[in-house]
Design brief:
heterodimer; A: about 300 residues; mainly alpha; MetI-like fold; 13 helices; about 75% helix; about 0% strand; globular; B: about 325 residues; two-stranded antiparallel ribbon; 15 helices; about 70% helix
Chain lengths: ~300, ~325
């Protein structure tokens, strides 16, 4: 083979390793899972030995009250954390979007909760929530209040608080970045026209940031369905099923109940749910881009 | 970023109070864990002492008992094999980071320069993969790695591996470092490709064309011209990949056996016991948290670049 043909092959050589790895370790497993979800599948069997049962796993799940509860907990958890985090994160970003000393320290420190292992985050919060030695109850008792049964009666609230601690910074950082890239001239014009701080926020900053806010919100929503380790370490899904989100239920169905087929079917339900969110996000992005392109075209037409 | 201008506006002291409170809230739990990891369990449970206690490294000694060169007086038997899993975690995280970066930046370069697919396809694909929760991969990965991705024990290669490393059945990916590394590389590739793409696009074409006119082939152009120019992107991508491989629990727990356990698995196993030894477990948590803390302190700019690349264009 001569030099020229080796060079012509370059694009394929560059691309091949990534393509091969993603095919065998990502695409194939997903297809394998869809295939397995139609089968009665025990971890000790290879998939060839399993029996085809059609939609039995899917239908069984639809009639399973604990699956319903788990789905309900997941949706409650996801929408609670995303809405509270969006409110807090955007409010903090609007409040702190000014030229003050120390903002970069805050930005640095705010990354910390997101970088640390979820397992360790769960560990820290489990300690702080501990009924007798935990930080919160000790503080409450030293102030003369009753201790709260954090991970018992109020388990769902407690895991929501922990998630808010961990992920509000994500929204804060993205919103702050968006705020700082807003066109200065527009804000300047509004200020000269006498817009108050609130008017600037409601009529200029929020509408201009809307595309970023929506993408951030959807990204966070998708990630909220993936939370698993923090909850596993804090409550192990308990008490009862009160904090057993879908991801946790999938892993328990696979490892404890040893029903891989059912776990695969459940994974597919979760994937379909997430697919709807993701596709709506892509569609929204397309819409925004098209509109921007149309506006640009219209402007050029005017000139 | 306004960091370059040193003239700060004068602000209400309330803002500084808010800033301080936020920093305290973000760092507080980590600091609490740090302090507690130097306390004996007696001190943690009594709780009256607060900050007044005798710091001890006994918890760290207990955690690392299997790699310490000296005998410990307070321990008759080293039950926690933490040192071994720390080494496993390091090996897995480092190798998968390096592999992901090498493979990822080659692919990103090909996608940008040879115009294979549009950027839309890649960013769509990235989003799709980002959407897939690790829990969804659990079932198929468990099945495939244990049953399909195996080398038959009667084949030449299988027999060779079995003679070298021991074992009885077929040689499978599950339970090996490479099995865990493979899934981490696959999980991280789309994100890495996507981030690196946005950096490679900014490399001026003229630079590459000049090199090509001087007689460099595509491989030399890539390694000697492009790679050095996208170092910031590589740093961001490396931190994100390392973080996921280092912190991941679920897939590692499904794929590892006794000898390939990573640190998160060890921590979760010890948390589910009835009597939690808080001091020791916080010491292990602290050891697991050290690399992310270092990244946060020294590479926060790269992390923010990687994070905002996901949502804010530019």
């Amino acid at each position: 083979m001569n030099n020229a043909s080796i060079n012509r092959l370059a694009p394929f050589v560059f691309l091949a390793p990534a393509a091969i790895i993603m095919l065998i370790a990502l695409l194939y497993p997903l297809l394998y899972m869809v295939y397995g979800s139609f089968r009665e599948w025990d971890p000790s069997q290879t998939i060839g030995e399993t029996e085809f049962v059609g939609f039995k796993n899917y239908i069984a799940l639809l009639n399973d009250p604990s699956f319903h509860e788990s789905l309900g907990v997941t949706l409650k958890f996801a929408f609670a954390v995303v809405s509270i985090e969006m409110l807090l994160g955007v409010a903090l970003a609007l409040l702190l979007d000014r030229n003050i000393r120390g903002i970069s320290i805050l930005r640095t420190m705010f990354i910390l909760p997101m970088m640390i292992a979820p397992v360790v985050v769960g560990l820290m919060w489990r300690y702080m929530y501990h009924p007798t030695v935990g930080t919160f109850n000790r503080f409450l008792k030293s102030m003369g209040f009753e201790g709260v049964d954090w991970l018992g009666q109020h388990a769902l609230m407690s895991i929501i608080i922990a998630d808010i601690w961990q992920w509000t910074p994500f929204i804060f950082i993205l919103t702050l970045a968006a705020l700082q890239s807003l066109p200065k001239s527009t804000l300047e014009a509004a200020r000269i026209d006498g817009a108050t701080g609130w008017q600037q926020i409601i009529y200029i900053k929020i509408p201009l940031m809307m595309p970023v806010l929506i993408v951030t919100c959807l990204l966070r929503l998708i990630d909220a369905f993936k939370v698993l380790e923090v909850i596993l370490v804090m409550t192990e899904g308990g008490p009862g099923l009160s904090t057993e989100i879908l991801a946790l239920r999938i892993s328990r169905t696979a490892t404890e109940f040893r029903e891989l087929g059912v776990a695969a079917a459940m994974s597919n339900y979760l994937l379909i749910l997430l697919l709807i969110f993701t596709l709506s996000m892509i569609a929204y992005n397309k819409y925004v881009e098209n509109r921007a392109a149309r506006l640009r075209a219209a402007k050029e037409g005017d000139a | 970023m306004s960091g370059a201008t040193k003239n700060y506006d004068k602000q209400h002291p309330g803002y500084f109070a808010l800033l301080a409170a936020l920093v305290f809230m973000a760092v507080g739990p980590v600091a609490l864990m740090f302090v507690n990891s130097f306390k004996l369990d007696v001190d943690i449970l009594s709780g009256t002492s607060g900050l007044l206690f005798l710091p001890t490294i006994q918890n760290y000694e207990t955690a690392l008992c299997d790699v310490l060169p000296y005998e410990l007086d307070h321990l008759d038997f080293c039950s926690l094999k933490f040192g071994g899993s720390l080494i496993n975690s390091l090996v897995i995280a480092l190798i998968s980071t390096i592999l992901t970066l090498v493979i990822g930046c080659m692919a990103a370069y090909a996608l940008v320069r040879f115009r294979f697919m549009g950027r839309d396809v890649v960013s769509g694909g990235t989003l799709m993969v980002r959407m897939v929760p690790p829990a969804v991969l659990l079932v198929p990965v468990f099945g495939l790695w244990n049953n399909e991705f195996c080398i038959d024990k009667t084949s030449f290669l299988g027999a060779l591996i079995r003679d070298t490393f021991g074992g009885r059945g077929d040689v499978c990916l599950a339970g090996t470092h490479s099995g865990i590394i493979l899934i981490y590389v696959a999980m991280n590739l789309p994100f890495v490709i996507w981030i690196l793409q946005s950096f490679i696009v900014q490399v001026p074409r003229q630079l590459e064309e000049a090199a090509r006119i001087d007689g460099a082939g595509p491989y030399r152009v890539f390694f000697l011209i492009v790679l050095p120019l996208i170092k910031p992107g590589l740093a961001a991508a490396a931190i994100f990949t390392f973080r996921i491989a280092w912190n991941e629990y679920l897939l590692a727990s499904a794929l590892s056996d006794r000898d390939t356990k990573t640190v998160p698995i060890l921590i979760v196993n010890n948390m589910s016991e009835f009597n939690i030894e808080w001091g020791v477990i916080m010491a292990t948590g602290m050891l697991l948290a050290i690399p992310p803390i270092i990244f946060t302190l020294f590479a926060s700019r790269q992390i923010i670049t990687g994070m905002t690349a996901g949502a804010v264009k530019g």
